[in-house]
Amino acid sequence: MHLITTEEAQKLVVSLKDRLGRPIDPAIAEILAEFIRVSQALGFKTIGSCEGHIDWGLPFPWIDFEVSAERVPLPSLWKLWKFSKRRRAIKESKKHAQNAEEKTDQLCAMLTRFLVQHDKVHGVQPEAFLVIDRWQRFLFRLMPARTLLSDSYKVSGDISALNSLLEEQRRVFKSFASFCVATLEREQNLAGVPDEGCKGCMGRG
Fold this sequence. Notes:
α2 (26-42) packs parallel to α5. This protein has 5 helices and 4 strands. It has a 4-stranded antiparallel beta sheet. Residues 193-205 have low confidence and may be disordered. By secondary structure, the protein is α+β, with helices and mostly antiparallel strands. The radius of gyration is 20 Å and the shape is globular. The chain has helices at 6-15, 26-42, 83-122, 147-156, 159-191; strands at residues 45-50, 62-66, 130-133, 139-144.
């Protein structure tokens, strides 16, 4: 496990763009940089994020994470002699997917444990609780637990209440990001000199 520096993570965030070519939302850029440090250290990556918006998109902050599940290339069936090779490749691909799914389970469990520890230490208000939402096989999302509250403020037009809620949710995101980094730093120090860590992981906004 190896944590990259804050400066390295911030440079990555600056280089990131969304699908429309826009930079990362400023209110979540610092938070994303910390989670890029965490994700690279643990061997997964960020693939999307949002600070939460009142006038468009979702009215709450979120960050999506992914465990790599790239499949083993499968040979074509155009020649019979390739059949056995293809069968082996299919078996390897299924094994790789199973390993990735197990790793996703482990990471979700670890981050959930971190959330419980963080909330006990920092006394987070119920409306700002964060949860890990496993919404696809290899993907999970860090998001507020009470998204219906954000939706209700948006629908009712109570912009002042929604702004206050967004600020508190972003504050908890930032606090949790710092908590994760500090926890991994302690574990890294206890383990002694770290190895080279996971290379090639890139967070995308």
